[in-house]
Design brief:
Elements (H helix, E strand, L loop, with lengths): L4 E8 L3 H12 L5 E3 L26 H14 L3 E3 L3 E5 L5 E5 L3 E9 L3 E3 L5 H5 L5 E2 L2 H4 L7 E5 L3 H11 L4 E5 L9 H11 L4 E4 L2 E8 L4 E9 L4 E7 L2 E4 L3 E3 L10 E2 L2 E2 L17 E3 L11 H21 L2
Parallel strand pairs: 1-2, 1-6, 2-3, 6-19, 8-15, 9-10, 9-15, 10-11
Antiparallel strand pairs: 4-5, 5-6, 7-16, 12-13, 13-14, 17-18
The chain binds flavin-adenine dinucleotide (FAD) and NADP nicotinamide-adenine-dinucleotide phosphate (NAP).
Keywords: Disulfide bond, FAD, Flavoprotein, NADP, Oxidoreductase, Redox-active center
Pfam family, one: Pyr_redox_2
GO molecular function: thioredoxin-disulfide reductase (NADPH) activity
Length: 319
């Protein structure tokens, strides 16, 4: 570990919110540090087709888009730091951060730590992680060529993963706890079309009861199906389970430091600017970490921009 490194502004996170904040802060000559965290590039690294990033009408992969954002920030002199922050002290000034590799202080901070996949909470799920249980179809789908897999969830991610997998594997069993999917219509239309290939089987009102297998691989899934008369249990042959039941904001390290609601960092949302300020002046937050509702790349980038503008104004007020 080196000496403590001080910067006017430090940005936590290398997703769309973090990189956008870095681009704006760099252009304001604030010479920011951007600390990447473990998941370099953020959630979009898990998708191979983005079709709603304005201007990129030919579709773009998540890793290509994030690579371009990275290059853009670096070209404008953002210093990219490969570290993961494990604790913070925002009661001190300058604000204090402890990473796995170094310690840092900053006059202003932008938190853009996004979110991580939610898990079902089963013991068997922990046991089979990396041995058949995955949260990323584009990363792991390839391993299940000609095999049967299951996807759990009913949002955009679950439907996208089901569609993606159905082009690779033998069969996809899509398990959703409700009756209606919350995914967007365009994806549901594609799902309806793809069902005709008989490569997708849908189980509604169904939950995963247990993941079964040997010591090294998943072999079956036990699911519980509710219907109006009685509950029924089904055992399905699968080699892989893809969990796509949403994301939990990465805010554990801020719990005793900042005001939060349902795990998301609260921002003041002032109509006269300073939208992204948290409960502590000088600490700003952007992207999925503040967003209960929209959670898109474009909305994350937009709030990253606002956080950079808000922090620039804050830093000027200190002069
Ligand atoms: P994230 O992308 O979650 O990035 C968070 C960053 O914070 C990561 O780099 C992580 O390493 C870092 N970090 C976390 N903890 C720490 C720490 N302690 N210290 C330092 N750094 C830390 N949206 C769309 O608009 N279009 C799409 O097509 C689309 N497809 C998607 C497909 C999938 C499979 C998923 C999961 C999401 C998709 N989304 C899509 C949503 C989009 O990815 C998110 O809304 C967006 O990535 C959020 O950006 P963010 O910068 O807030 O956070
Ligand atoms: P989401 O929209 O929060 O959906 C989560 C799904 O998982 C819901 O269907 C939910 O069921 C189900 N679920 C939650 N907890 C569960 C549990 N314990 N057991 C079983 N099922 C459970 O999450 P997401 O699909 O990952 O999307 C996250 C965000 O990223 C969204 O804002 C989404 O729009 C965005 N995104 C966008 C795109 C795109 O634009 N193409 C692609 C992917 C993601 P209920 O419906 O019953 O609550």
């Amino acid at each position: 570990m080196n000496d403590i490194q001080h910067r006017k502004i430090i940005i936590l996170g290398s997703g769309p919110a973090g990189y956008t904040a870095a681009i704006y802060a760099s252009r304001a000559n604030l010479r920011p540090y951007l600390i990447t965290g473990v998941n370099k590039g953020g959630q979009l690294m898990n998708t191979n087709e983005i079709e709603n990033w304005p201007g990129d009408f030919n579709k773009i992969s998540g890793s290509d888009l994030m690579d371009r954002m990275h290059k853009h920030a670096v070209q404008l002199n953002t210093k990219i730091v490969s570290d993961n922050i494990i604790s913070v002290d925002f009661k001190k000034k300058p604000f204090y951060l402890i990473g796995e590799n170094n310690k840092y202080t900053a006059d202003a901070i932008i938190i853009a730590t996004g979110a991580n996949p939610r898990y079902l909470g089963l013991k068997s799920e922990v046991f089979f992680k990396g041995k058949g249980v995955s949260t990323c179809a584009t990363c792991d789908g390839f391993f299940y060529k000609e095999k049967e897999v299951a996807v759990v969830g009913g949002g955009n991610t679950a439907i996208e993963e089901t569609l993606y997998l159905s082009n690779i594997v033998k069969k996809v069993h899509l398990i959703h706890r409700g009756i209606n999917f919350r995914a967007e219509k365009i994806l549901l239309n594609r799902l309806t079309k793809q069902i005709k290939t008989k490569k997708i089987i849908i189980y509604l009102n169904s939950t995963v009861k247990e993941i079964l297998g040997t010591s090294s691989e998943v072999t079956h899934l036990l699911i519980k199906q509710k219907n109006s008369i009685k509950n029924k249990e089904l055992k399905i042959n699968i080699s892989g389970l893809f969990i796509a039941i949403g994301y939990i904001p990465n805010t554990n390290i801020f719990i005793d430091q900042l005001k939060m609601k349902d795990g998301y960092i609260s921002v003041i949302c002032n109509t006269h600017g300073n939208y992204t300020q948290t409960s502590i002046p000088g600490i700003f937050a952007a992207g999925d970490v503040i967003d209960h509702v929209y959670r898109q790349a474009i909305t994350s980038s937009a709030s990253g921009c606002m956080a950079a503008l808000d922090s620039e104004r804050y830093l000027s007020s200190l002069l």
